């Protein structure tokens, strides 16, 4: 048995009588993990194995402190014998899904990640060296210049993506590493080399990997094995002793059969085949699983696990410290650069929008071409400006899918402690600015000059700046929506709905004094950015304008049109409206930051509240100790 005093940031992880349940209206409370006890120690690779749906990922998520708030958990999870919060920089977790930036090449993704994660004190050349070495260890040297690809187009293979995901998390050689199915999608040779690299990093590190179907060679790399079936422990102990355990329980591994194949076949209850027990007798899988669970709970192995857990728990070991990483400024700069590159390569982010906006701007310009100064031009000018402030800005939601993809990468990296939400918000804002200038100024100029709105540089600048700020506002609004709403389609619908309500209360479709006071006027009219966008654009256009009234044979002053036709408050300048819009951008971005940060704080709190005592959780399930009765 190894030394159990953690040194140099080493991590001993224990879990005792761990229960996880989900509730549904149909089935009530259903236990996914049922009283699991185990431990992971530095220098030992622990593999969690079991048939699909047995609870491997749930166990990994639970001990890594990442369980979703829809589940309830109970039992003790201790790190170095203490209750400590994991995640956010103290451990690394390679998830089952590969959440990567599709537009980057493998090399770029790893280099950026190295710059984001490794401390400022490390020279850039050393960071590159570590990145190159890790890519080589993961067998990615031939794919370095290939784009990762994904939803935007084909890139590297699924197996290579898996290796990139692992590569990004082992760059800093974390003391505690969780890997959910690191070999899925890999062929047997790649699986072996990847697992060998992971196993070779075990020195002083605690590594826990869930794995589906390891080959004999891969299986031989595991130090400990946790075998689950239907959320219960079938075996926990040295991987090398599992064959003997199965044999002693009456299910010996046939000669020349891969032991892991034998284990999984024996405990897979999804396809209820009878299992041979000795030469004559056959048993149902359910019976076999119960025999194995009882055999394990009666065994010395189980007692050894319990005493090892108790011994580790007695040590009030080191408190986990966050890894030292790049400074906030470096992270913000690197993220800005990465986000800028991503935006430039992702056609859907801005380029498609620019093309569509130009077409719409030409359309607007031809419909309202040389609008003139006749009485009817009042309505034409108003409609044209309303279209710009509402529909052109509304279409900024077109970049939502690209943003959601970027957000997924951010959420993975943030959870693994690569950087914080502040750097992401700054980077996203800065990197988008040049593109937003393009998509607002070019189509804006086409529509403005073809229509023949008020001449002069100042007038055009005000028009384009209002359009520009509204686009940022719509993007900011969609960021807030994305941080609250769980999926892309729901986000798109919610964002569109919010904007439709705001635009209705903006003061064009119903004049400000005619708006119903409850909700529409107070507060929506004042909260909606459309009010300030309409007012800014209308003031910019009508102030100082003289319209020929053909019937009255006279001139109408623009200020009167603003006051009496559009019911616009002309006591303050159009620049104040623009300033309010700019203030709203800051407010919206801060709100996004707040929601993301609240998510970080609220989720663990919700988990803690939702945790119940084991008996309350599911009295219908059989606790492990009852198998030994
Ligand atoms: N949040 C949840 N709500 C409802 N059911 C859940 C939830 N999380 C997990 N489950 C269920 O718990 C069981 C275990 O899921 P888990 O993902 O841990 O299995 P797994 O062993 O990792 O499977 P696989 O190898 O196929 O990935 C499954 O039946 C799954 O449907």
UniProtKB/TrEMBL annotation:
Membrane topology summary: Multi-pass membrane protein
Cited Gene3D superfamilies: P-loop containing nucleotide triphosphate hydrolases (3.40.50.300)
Protein name per Swiss-Prot or TrEMBL: ABC transporter domain-containing protein
Entry's family note: Belongs to the ABC transporter superfamily. ABCG family. Eye pigment precursor importer (TC 3.A.1.204) subfamily.
Organism listed in the record: Solanum commersonii
Location (main, coarse): membrane
SMART domains to which the protein is assigned, alphabetical: AAA (SM00382)
Transmembrane segments: 350-371, 383-404, 424-450, 462-482, 488-511, 575-596
Lineage: superkingdom: Eukaryota
ABC transporter domain segment(s): 13-255
Gene Ontology molecular function, alphabetical: ABC-type transporter activity; ATP binding; ATP hydrolysis activity
Keywords attached to this entry: ATP-binding, Membrane, Nucleotide-binding, Transmembrane, Transmembrane helix, Transport
InterPro entries the record matches: AAA+_ATPase, ABC2_TM, ABC_transporter-like_ATP-bd, ABC_transporter-like_CS, ABCG_dom, P-loop_NTPase, Plant_ABCG
Pfam families the UniProt entry points to: ABC2_membrane, ABC2_membrane_7, ABC_tran
Cellular compartments annotated: Membrane
GO CC terms of this entry: membrane
SUPFAM superfamilies membership: P-loop containing nucleoside triphosphate hydrolases
